Every structure is written in structure tokens, then in C-alpha cells.
């Protein structure tokens, strides 16, 4: 809209579109519609596009509906609707518990309906603290996805990326890594632009509590092959996935040390931080953990025990953008860095990028999907980095046509057993 034209100078259809984009006039009173027209006229007089900031700070904005849908391969997407037509996206998912998380969101919905979505921190506190039994993976995963969507709405309403609301960018691009378990995969991902990768310990059978020298040597030799394919200028992290015993973890880490992995992730189960701290003291390699740690209270224990120097909060589990921003501040005081965990979808990645942009102690961002087949504009890797999004909110838009064949799934956690004796094996 030209700077010197008013709303009255625009065609009637254009005026109506501006008003509706500002206020979502459906259901408004006569007085509210008049206020919407006045707000539209004021915005038009500035020459700004309504999409840049469609809602003025004092305009009425209310949540009208929470919509969840299962998305292949194993995700749960959330869309929060408002009376102004602005929607927010989130991923309130815990892997293997999609239906449980979906129901948790449904139980929270009555609290949010009719409320202003812009009071993000207040809603976080209400949802978390009004539950007598606080925390846990299901509640915090549901809360995390809702929190992402509320920040998305707030950013869109103000016409700015979420990182601008968190203090502005501390960097102009975000480093990411891919998952690669073979030398061929690393070579292919290097061609795609990645300079960092994550793998797991190579095994010929499920790891035992105490392993033979042959198994440890096999794991080290296979990692050496990955290191050779990546070269000395690339980084490779190793994820033990909490499936290794503390005794075996120490032996493996010693074998890996000559090849300089970027970090050792979850060297044992994260339920006993003191044990992980003991492992951390036994090596010079950075220890990383956090995908199964929830809220600031859980990460406080990790930091106080000195169990890890790289924290990996998952923005879909740990409490969303609101909570991970606080966790990052705590980590900074302990000289620990943040490498957000994300084996999930592109909404989770978008939330992680917003956090990465806004904190000083960011290290690297995990991803398994850049959004091809899900987003209208997928993320692109260049020289190991993603450019910061400039669109408002989370900076993404779902491609619902491309997603049409990806709706619905029945993914379950795998059940694994030792082939020799039938005992349960950690997944």
C-alpha cells in the first residue's frame, strides 16, 4: 500500500481483507468491528503491509481452537487458531506416545480457549503449576508444543521472528548436523552441505554390561572409518543413547579418544546424574545429555553434578521455547553450551533455530528433516549452517498439499531383546 494513500482509497475488497486480517471480524460486536476498521485505517496510513504486524498491541486476540494431527513418520503437529485468523504451530510429541500427547493437549484446551495467546509465560506457568502432579514427559511435551505455537502467534501478531522477542539475534546463522552411520552417508551429507554429523557406537550385537576387547576394538575401528571419511575439519558426535552400561561406556570412550569425537551423548541412562558425572571426570571428551531431562529443575541437577558440559534440551519435551531459554541461561553460568535435541519434525527444528539465534552459548542444532514435503520453504544447509529466518513467528509455513499423504501414523517404540538369552535390551 503506498504511503500516502488511506484505507478509504483502496478497493472495497482490499479494505475488507485488511480489516479481516487485522481482527478476524467474525463474531465481533459492532463496536469491535468499528475498532477494527479504525486500526486498519491507522495501519494503512503508515504504508505498512498488514502481514508485517497484523495485530496492534492492544487489539483483542483470542484463542478459538487447538487442532492436532498425526504426521508421518511418527510426529504430532499442533495448530492453535485465533479469532484474527492467525495460527501458531507446535510439536507436542513424545516419541511412541503420540495419542497420549494428543489427549494431553485436548485436556489443556479448555484452559486456553478464549484467552489472549500473547501472555506466553503466564500460560506456561498456569498449565504447569495448576497440575498438582507437575512435570513428567507427557505434560511437558504437551506444554512444549503449546508454548511453541503461542510464541509463533505472538511473533506473527507483532510481525517479527520469535528471536527478536527473546532479545534479538546473537548470530546470523545456525550450525546443524546430520545423522550418518556409514562413511558413504557422511560423504553424501558433506555434498549436501553438512560439516557435522552424529553416529552411534558400532556393535555386532546388543551391548553387554561388560564387553570383550574384541567388541571395543570393533567399535573404535568403525569410528575411525567415519573419521577418515569426514576428515579433520568436520565434527562427529557419538550418541550412546543411554543403552551402554557405565563400565562399558568408560572403556568405549577411552577407545574413541584418539579420534576426537565432538561429544559423547548419553553415555549411560540419564536417570542418575552422579554416575554420568563420574564418567565425565574420567575423560577429556565433552559429555552431552538432555533429551530425557525436563524443565529447569531437571537441568539444574545436571549442572550441579557437572554431569555434562553440553546440554541437549528438546524443545518438544523440556518445556518449549520459554523453558529452554531459561535452561540456556542457567547453562551459561556453568560455562556449558546448548545443542538442542531434535529427532523430530520441521516445526521442532524451527523452534530450535529461534532459540539458537537468541542465546550466546549455542553450539549446534540437531535435525533429521529440513522440511522437504512438509514446509512451503524448507530449510537449506550451506557450508554447515542455516540462515536465520526473517519471516514472523517461527518463520515457517506448512505445505498442506504436500502433507496430504503424510497424515496419520501408528508408530510405536520398538521392542528389542537379546538374541542369546531373551532379556530386554535398551532402545
What does this structure look like?
- This protein has about 425 residues and is of the alpha/beta class.
- It folds into three domains: about 5-50, no CATH class; about 65-160, Enolase-like, domain 1 (2-Layer Sandwich); about 165-405, Enolase-like C-terminal domain (TIM Barrel, Alpha-Beta Barrel).
- It has 13 helices and 13 strands.
- The strands form two sheets. Strands 4, 5, 6, 7, 8, 9, 10, 11, 12 and 13 form a ten-stranded mixed beta sheet that branches. A three-stranded antiparallel beta sheet has the order 1-2-3.
- Strand 12 (about 380) and strand 13 form a beta hairpin.
- The radius of gyration is 24 Å and the shape is globular.
- The protein starts with 11 loop residues before the first helix and ends in a 40-residue tail after the last strand.
- Residues about 1-30 have low confidence and may be disordered.
